[in-house]
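Lab notebook, bench 4. Continuing the backlog of folding jobs that were queued last week. Each job is logged with the same field layout so the records can be merged later without manual cleanup. Today's entry covers FAD-dependent 5-carboxymethylaminomethyl-2-thiouridine(34) oxidoreductase MnmC, a 552-residue chain. Filled in by technician R.K.

JOB TYPE: sequence-to-structure
TARGET: FAD-dependent 5-carboxymethylaminomethyl-2-thiouridine(34) oxidoreductase MnmC
LENGTH: 552
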Amino acid sequence: MDYRACWCSRARYTVFDAHYGDGSAIRVLTDVWNTDPHRSPKLHVIAVCDHLLPGFHRLPQAEPGLTVDLVSAPLDEALAQLTARVDLFRLHDIEQAGTDFARHVARVAAQDAHLLAQGLTPAQIDALTAQGFVFDAGGQHARFASRKPRAPVPPAPERRAIVLGAGIAGAAAAERLCARGWQVTLVDRQPQPAMEASGNLAGIFMPLLSKDDNVPTRLTRAAYLYALRHWERLGGIGRAIEGDTCGVLQLARDADHADVQRAIAAGKSLPPDFAEWLERPAAEALLGLPAPDGGWLFRGAGWARPGSVCDAMLAACGGRLERRFGVGDVRIERTGERWRLTDAHGATVACAPNLILANGSGAVAVPQAAQLPLTTLRGQVSHVPAGMVPKLPVVLCREAYLTPAAGGVCSAGATYDADPNPALSPESHAENLERLRGLLSDPQAARDAPLEGRVGFRCVAPDRLPLVGRLPDFDAAGTTERLRDVPRHPGLYALLGYASRGLIWAGFSAELLAAQIEGEPLPLEASLVDALDPARFVLRARRAPRGPQSEN
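JOB STATUS: finished
OUTPUT FIELD FOLLOWS
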């Protein structure tokens, strides 16, 4: 097939390959694209790959305009969860896939999409034909000719945005938009980035495990794996980013909890470089300290200073980023088709058609976001002199965490309470130290550690999942029952609710939001995208049981 004739007039060309194999076919395709002076500006390749952890995997590429997603799932499931418009399908090595996939192919097919087939069964060809594909005489090429109406392609957005909040969420939003050619104004009340919740000396990055591989587990895994790949493109942990991929050892809470973890490990679905269950002898040999019930070793995990991650992302924005820091609290209003931010004196701080709220719990001060059920939770971290605790080869965690020393300090914490006081609390410090001693199995560890540390405030949603997407209009929602029908505020988006996992949520959520705004294929299963949609709270509020009604 002559790809050049197909993509020369397209702003974006999307290919779906049913079998990644060794990747050679994808490399040939991208080589052709790279050498064609008339190519589409953007090539998006989505391929089913059977040797990765379950889910969608977005792989950062060196070539501008090239995006590669690998999907580890059965073919019909991969297509069913795909949010995209596909221009070319390559269907091969799928003789055992049945025929259910055909309706999903038709759902995501662009108008006049092409299909290259190799080895399809007669039943599969018949199923695709019934969905609107017209095959040539050899049964190896087809064109999508369905007359069913297709959803119109939305117009390209005006690529100018304001991002409110220069912590890790806002820095990631700016970087992901600038990478797509946007002009971004980053606004923060503080004089420097990462001065609030993102200002801690160390944040922990690690995945989450569960026996049923539930929604939080799948989302956290996707975000964690994307973060590791994305940080490497930014220069890497320990180089451009201050931190260490030393590994994280998550100790079991007790014998019963260890039994649950062994059941997860017995499934043998987790590669050891991602997560490995260590029984007591192996855990203690690694740690050099008691680990009575064993624990999970996450070899690729570790710690990073969030501010350095912000710095790396902002540096990658280049000249497309305008920084407006130290502006204090701002007033937000919609004027015509623009969002306008003004300072306390009424002077314009920024004006653009798109506004992204990445300012944590401060977002509820914006009238359009006031009904979001966000909570502010205080987190105090204790800074413990390195000489007061054993030298750790890994981050150690259970209900709390303790990092290896950096700059002569180990970070221990963090508390989780509703206290609005930003000052260091002796009670919170004592709580951190008590948990530290439990981690180390040493009641004398860090005895008389000075009251040193930092307080930050997390933004938390009721379901402990982030809010990623266009903000709903609560007042206009009426009796809407489906997410896609919830009315939205024009050009207003959220990157909120990262709780204590901002390090891994930031880049992935920003990538997802940027893809949504641009109308690109999304880097996540459709059902998980819905789980992050801010409009989920519109539907939940309506479905909540009401109290007894009085009778008149």
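OBSERVATION: Residues 362 and 459 are 9 Å apart (CA to CA).
SIGNED: R.K.
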